[in-house]
């Protein structure tokens, strides 16, 4: 898995990978909608647990571009 930092270049269809606590798997979420812009960008995300939420970028989070292997 090659992840990219969240730097204002996310798009619908990209995946967010949030690092888990020690001993826990990372969370993965599909970006459905990009909200805001620039430093205020945030996302409507459908998580792998099948719920949706608004997500604001934070440390320990990577981005997988559409088409990259999310399970890699």
Features:
single chain; mainly beta; 0% helix; DUF1918 domain-containing protein; DUF1918
Write structural notes for this entry.
InterPro entries: DUF1918. Residues 10-59 form the DUF1918 domain. This is DUF1918 domain-containing protein. It comes from Capillimicrobium parvum. This protein has one domain (4-64). By secondary structure, it is mostly beta strands. Helices cover 0% and strands 40% of the residues. The N and C termini lie close together (5 Å). Strand 2 (15-18) and strand 3 (27-35) form a beta hairpin. The chain is globular, with a radius of gyration of 11 Å. The protein has a six-stranded antiparallel beta sheet with strand order 1-6-2-3-4-5, with no helix packed on it.
Average pLDDT for all residues = 83
Overall structural domain count? 1
Radius of gyration: 11 Å
- Strand content is 35-45%
Largest sheet: 6 strands, antiparallel
The helix/strand series, from N terminus to C terminus, equals EEEEEE
Can you count the helices? 0
Task: Determine the fraction of residues in helical runs and give it as a percent range.
Answer: under 10%
* Helix vs. strand class: mainly beta
| Distance N to C terminus | 5 Å
Strand order of the largest sheet: 1-6-2-3-4-5
Q: Count the E strands.
A: 6
Identify low-pLDDT runs: none
Which overall shape is indicated by the principal axes computed on the Cα atoms?
Answer: globular
């Amino acid at each position: 898995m090659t992840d990219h930092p969240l730097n204002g270049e996310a798009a619908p269809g990209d995946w967010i990978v949030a690092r888990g606590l020690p001993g826990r798997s990372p969370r993965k979420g599909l970006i459905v909608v990009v909200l805001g812009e620039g430093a205020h960008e945030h996302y409507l995300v459908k998580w792998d647990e099948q719920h949706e939420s608004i997500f604001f970028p934070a440390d320990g989070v990577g981005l997988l571009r559409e088409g990259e292997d999310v399970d890699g």
